[in-house]
């Protein structure tokens, strides 16, 4: 029963993801999404779009990776993609959070989940490259659907988006090509500054 108790404590803890609000609006623009919605959306994208990964991937492994990739934000908070100051200590905050949160699990599962989280962060395997790609693609899709409101609110520039996505094509060239069209459409509309 101790193992089950630890697993249930972890499951209860990660429910806090529902309270971590991101800067990206949901598609209808009515409100910002939370971390659990983001992770669910990415998991579904992984299942549906895995055929566009540059390399063969283990879909279940990648789905698990995207479901846990933002768990650390329970402690570390969501660092906005274009917040340069917030990124200065992001890695340190997230490492500490990963130690605590994954440490709630039984040892074997804690090691497995932490290893997957580290793999996502290192972006070196086909699964991590595709997971990172859809982590970049998902906000672009939502920003476009919501009329670019988040980009406009934050004064996001084309150069910032291109810099943030400089490795997106390593996970999926097809998805990145699709997103480039959305980005350039929003530059033309003025929701992304052409700078």
Describe what you observe in this structure.
This protein has 195 residues and is mainly alpha-helical. It has a single domain, classed as Hypothetical protein af1432, CATH 1.10.3210.10. The chain has eleven helices and two strands, in the order H-E-E-H-H-H-H-H-H-H-H-H-H. The chain has helices at residues 2-14, 35-49, 59-68, 73-76, 84-87, 90-102, 107-122, 126-145, 149-154, 158-164, 173-189; strands at residues 21-25, 32-34. It has a two-stranded antiparallel ribbon with strand order 1-2. Strand 1 and strand 2 form a beta hairpin. The protein is globular. It starts with a helix and ends in a 6-residue tail after the last helix.
Helices, strands, pairings?
Layout: H1 2-14, E1 21-25, E2 32-34, H2 35-49, H3 59-68, H4 73-76, H5 84-87, H6 90-102, H7 107-122, H8 126-145, H9 149-154, H10 158-164, H11 173-189
Antiparallel strand pairs: 1-2
Helix pairs in contact: 2-3, 2-8, 3-7, 3-8, 7-8, 8-11
């Amino acid at each position: 029963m101790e193992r089950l108790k630890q697993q249930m404590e972890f499951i209860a803890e990660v429910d806090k993801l529902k309270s971590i609000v991101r800067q990206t609006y949901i598609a209808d623009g009515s409100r910002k999404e939370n971390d659990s919605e983001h992770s669910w959306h990415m998991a579904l994208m992984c299942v549906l779009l895995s055929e566009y990964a540059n390399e063969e991937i283990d879909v279940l492994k990648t789905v698990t990776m995207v479901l846990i990739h933002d768990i650390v934000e329970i402690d570390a908070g969501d660092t906005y993609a274009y917040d340069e100051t917030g990124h200065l200590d992001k890695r340190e905050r997230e490492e500490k959070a990963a130690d605590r949160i994954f440490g709630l699990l039984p040892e074997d599962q804690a090691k497995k989940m932490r290893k997957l989280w580290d793999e996502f962060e290192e972006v070196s395997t086909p699964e991590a490259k595709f997971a990172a790609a859809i982590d970049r693609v998902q906000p672009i899709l939502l920003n476009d659907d919501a009329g670019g409101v988040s980009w406009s609110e934050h004064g996001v520039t084309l150069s910032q988006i291109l810099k943030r996505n400089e490795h997106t094509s390593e996970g999926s060239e097809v998805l990145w090509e699709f997103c480039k069209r959305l980005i350039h459409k929003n530059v033309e509309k003025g929701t992304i500054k052409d700078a």
